[in-house]
Design brief:
alpha/beta, 10 strands, 4-stranded mixed beta sheet, GMP Synthetase, Chain A, domain 3, about 200 residues, 2 domains, elongated
């Protein structure tokens, strides 16, 4: 793999980075790109201007249009093939990472015998139980034998949602599919009517 295959920058991203470098009085600046958290739930990246003394022996470096890029050895494989863009929207502006190695939850079709078993438990056992409280549970993804669900309706923002997940949903799913190692709630509970996540 060549350095050019590691990361690419759109014209907008390159221009923004060159602006940041031009505004900084330090000499010999490069852009460090790293992966702070490779979770499919909320991947976190960091970009920072670094001076020569901040480089590490294991870093990979290459030239992008108008600036040098430095990537630590742990982040290199995860970032391979990533395209970085600069995006401005009503929600704010910032760098956007399009990384083929970290696929967001629910981005691939869900099928197969394990998916069918988990779905059946949710549809036939879990949802009838939470429906009495106006709630619903939806399967989002299964990765590495971890089930990811969202909780909607009366369950979203409910202070008892974590108890429901821990004491009921996990056990029912693992009874039907013993190979499942965990069940994680990826609901944005802060958006519910009584959020318990700030």
């Amino acid at each position: 793999m060549s350095d050019k295959d590691l990361l690419t920058f759109t014209d907008a991203a390159s221009e923004r980075i060159r602006t940041f470098i031009d505004e900084d009085p330090a000499e010999g600046l490069a852009v460090r790109v790293s992966v702070q958290n490779a979770s499919p739930i909320a991947p976190e990246y960091e970009m920072a201007l670094i001076e020569p003394f901040e480089r590490e022996a294991e870093d990979q470096s290459f030239d992008a249009p108008g600036f040098e890029v430095v990537v630590d050895s742990k982040s290199a494989d995860i970032l391979s093939g990533t395209r970085i863009d600069w995006v401005e929207s009503l929600q704010g502006s910032g760098f956007h990472f399009n990384n083929p190695n970290i696929q967001p939850l629910g981005s691939a079709p869900l099928d197969g015998p394990l998916v069918d078993r988990v779905r059946r438990v949710i549809d036939e056992q879990i949802n009838p139980g939470v429906a009495s409280h106006g709630g619903t549970v939806r399967l989002v993804d299964i990765r590495d034998n971890v089930v990811y669900v969202t909780m909607g309706g009366g369950c979203q923002g409910c202070g008892m949602a974590s108890v429901t997940l821990t004491q009921g949903i996990k056990q029912m799913i693992r009874d039907a599919a013993p190979e499942i190692v965990d069940v994680q709630d990826v609901t944005d509970h802060a958006a519910g009517s009584n959020p318990y996540y700030a």
